[in-house]
Amino acid sequence: MISSTQNATCSVEPGTTEDLGVILRILGYTRTSFAVKGGGHASNQGFSSTKGVQIAMYRFPEVTYDARTKTVTIGTGLIWDEVYAALEPYNVNVVGGRVTGVGVASFTLGGGYSWKTNQYGLTLLVDTVQAFELVLPNGTVTTVTATSNTDSFFGLKGGFNNFVEQGVVTTFVLKTVPQTQVWGGLITYTTSMLPPARFRTGQPGVSALIFYDAPTPLTKKTSPLARSYLLFSRPLPTKLLDYAVYLIPCLLRVTQWTHWNLSLTKLYALQYYGQSMAQKSAVLISYSVEPLLPSLFSHNTIPTAYPPIRSKGLLPLNLYFAWTDPLSDDAFQKAIGNSTVILKARAVANGQDIANAAVYGNYATIHTLVDDIYKGNLPRLRSIKAVYDPDNVMGLTGGYKF
């Protein structure tokens, strides 16, 4: 990740909420720049990285399952791999990340597209998040729920970077769901099998990730998916954790951008950027379409910071560029930005009503305007920040600012 090349002056690992409160008060008093790191998978510099003081949340590793309430309390220093492993003995899971190495904190606070989103919605939208433990910039520790503090709960659900601008979240209480074994893997279509795969260069092909975890086993008699050839070490029912670990890309420098559903069959963006960026150390140019049901935003009616509009279920298109040469950072950032402008213009020209669609913050580049993420919710978010952070301590961090 680009952010991993930004070195902090020092790093501190609080072990308690009281420790964290003291740290925030000192940083606010001295007006020292800082960043908060959970899993550290954010690609944008200044989000979980800093040249100042980095607060690393590794000493908040709690995973406590309550069988009576069917909830789990998890610390913000975890990655989803650790959560899945801890819940596996109970045959339950949460609406969480899809690949290994993804941090619990920003994933949940930014939105949370999961393998289970079609069934349950985004992590922050559904009843998945029952409560937050929050350390305010003045050091006060508080628990936030939908009934205890409506405004704070609204802002935490989608407030995103720096564990939101109200302070630092230390734990979540999440609702669990049943978890069976998973059937799935990677299907790759070559140019001889699928003409549009000619978009790709280097290793021609279009890939599809398949995920199935219904209680009824998938068989060749009941579904064509089971008859597909999967590039998977064991195309048999497996654990969700094993499936997630299998999907991790090992790359040095990456950046992402979000967009909306758009047919790429007549767009040669992949071919153009694959060829033009190959000389700049590109190792992967990927445009990933995420097929989700139109109902993905309708699983809960409790107001949330993101998405600002729920009447339309947007299907994010994740642009994923990876390269090795740090001297090419600016070129790739510019390329991915230009590509999104072209794709959006083409989508609008094709009749898609996305001219004013909100951008998904977890996929957006650092140059994204905060207005494009939160739209009409921005005034309320700014007023909430003014109440909980009147001295603008969280303004000493990077990322999107209310």
UniProtKB/TrEMBL annotation:
The keyword Ligase is assigned to this record: no
MF terms in GO: FAD binding; oxidoreductase activity
Superkingdom assignment: Eukaryota
UniProt domain FAD-binding PCMH-type: residue ranges: 4-179
Keywords: FAD, Flavoprotein, Oxidoreductase
InterPro entries: BBE, FAD-bd_PCMH, FAD-bd_PCMH-like_sf, FAD-bd_PCMH_sub2, FAD-linked_Oxidoreductase, Oxid_FAD_bind_N
Coiled coil: none
Similarity-based family: Belongs to the oxygen-dependent FAD-linked oxidoreductase family.
Name of the protein in question: FAD-binding PCMH-type domain-containing protein
Originating species: Piloderma croceum (strain F 1598)
Source species taxonomy: Eukaryota, Fungi, Dikarya, Basidiomycota, Agaricomycotina
